[in-house]
Amino acid sequence: MDTQNRVGVVVVSAGRGSRMGTRESKQYLLLENKPIIMHTLEVFDRMPLVHEIVLVTGAEDVERCAGWIAHYGLRKVVNIVPGGKERQQSVYKGLLEISTEWVMVHDGVRPFIEPERIEACYQKALLAGAAVLAVPVKDTIKQVSGSGMIEATPDRRSLWAIHTPQAFRLSDLLKAHEQAEADGFAGTDDSMLVERMGIPVAVVEGSYTNIKITTPEDLEYAAFMLKRGEREG
Ligand SMILES: Nc1ccn([C@@H]2O[C@H](COP(=O)(O)OP(=O)(O)OP(=O)(O)O)[C@@H](O)[C@H]2O)c(=O)n1
Ligand SMILES: C[C@](O)(CO)[C@H](O)COP(=O)(O)O
């Protein structure tokens, strides 16, 4: 596969993990004796599709991440950059270091992403212009007012929970981030920024196991998933 057909990846890992409630930021907690962020990076590092990885961390974590990357023998992390106050700013800082035409953005705390799903998301982006992984929601979703009353029940058949990775043409995503910043718009994912530029984004069905480790019960599930992987592995 030549360099032109390969993709750059921004892995964001500069959050505080406040919902996890641990002293250590959640992305550095150990699973099977290895920091969660290293589990995530390894998946991308091993894929021939991936040309380069930019890791975005807290400024105080750059050095220890560099140490782990060397320790675990990762070869594709070309830069480790300090992130911003919000996820959106962290992604933008990572994007500035990417050299490929296409880029994928992934949460450092989604270590169970499967290579086949990454590949499918990227291939769809090449065809459609942009693509995100997602799963159909399983629960009935209600829109609820500030006073706790149900206002609406959207048709579940059209509702998807959006995951990462998300794949874009680098120039589109940079423009979308710069426009959002200029407009003071804060999105909770990257596709929101691209959608508001009028760029269509395709949805690719992902896997329910691609959880974002967010709260303490997610850690128990993650430990179970790793054990299961070992047994099947
Ligand atoms: N300023 C930020 C905030 C978040 N992230 C990253 O974005 C991903 C998804 O965010 P989330 O799960 O919300 O992480 P936190 O912001 O750390 O969690 P919390 O909201 O509970 O503090 C994580 O990999 C996180 O490290 C980031 O790089 N920079
Ligand atoms: C990007 C994301 O993971 C898609 O589900 C999610 O929106 C991140 O949100 P968070 O509030 O930063 O966890």
Written description of the protein model:
The protein has about 230 residues and is α/β, with parallel strands linked by helices. It has a single domain, classed as Spore Coat Polysaccharide Biosynthesis Protein SpsA, Chain A. Helix content is about 35%, strand content about 25%. It has 7 helices and 11 strands. The protein has helices spanning about 35-45, 60-70, 85-95, 115-130, 170-185, 190-195, 215-230, and strands at about 5-15, 30, 35, 50-55, 75-80, 100-105, 130-135, 145, 150, 160-170, 200-205. The strands form 3 sheets. The protein has a 7-stranded mixed sheet with strand order 5-4-1-6-10-7-11, with helices on both faces. It has a two-stranded antiparallel sheet with strand order 2-3. The protein is globular, with a radius of gyration of 18 Å. The structure holds cytidine-5'-triphosphate and the ligand C[C@](O)(CO)[C@H](O)COP(=O)(O)O. Cytidine-5'-triphosphate (CTP) binds next to β1 and α3.
Count helical runs: 7
Q: What characteristic shape results from the CA principal axes?
A: globular
CATH topology: Spore Coat Polysaccharide Biosynthesis Protein SpsA, Chain A
Oligomer: single chain
| Mean pLDDT rating | 96
Spell out the CATH superfamily. Answer: Spore Coat Polysaccharide Biosynthesis Protein SpsA, Chain A
Distance between the termini: 27 Å
- Which CATH architecture? Alpha-Beta Complex
Query: If you compute it from the alpha carbons, what radius of gyration comes out, rounded to the nearest whole angstrom?
Result: 18 Å
Structural class label: alpha/beta
Give the number of DSSP strands.
Answer: 11
Number of domains: 1
Please state how the strands of the largest beta sheet are arranged side by side. Answer: 5-4-1-6-10-7-11
Report the portion of residues in β strands: 15-25%
Site (Positions MEP for the nucleophilic attack): 156, 212
Family: Belongs to the IspD/TarI cytidylyltransferase family. IspD subfamily.
GO molecular function, one term: 2-C-methyl-D-erythritol 4-phosphate cytidylyltransferase activity
Function: Catalyzes the formation of 4-diphosphocytidyl-2-C-methyl-D-erythritol from CTP and 2-C-methyl-D-erythritol 4-phosphate (MEP).
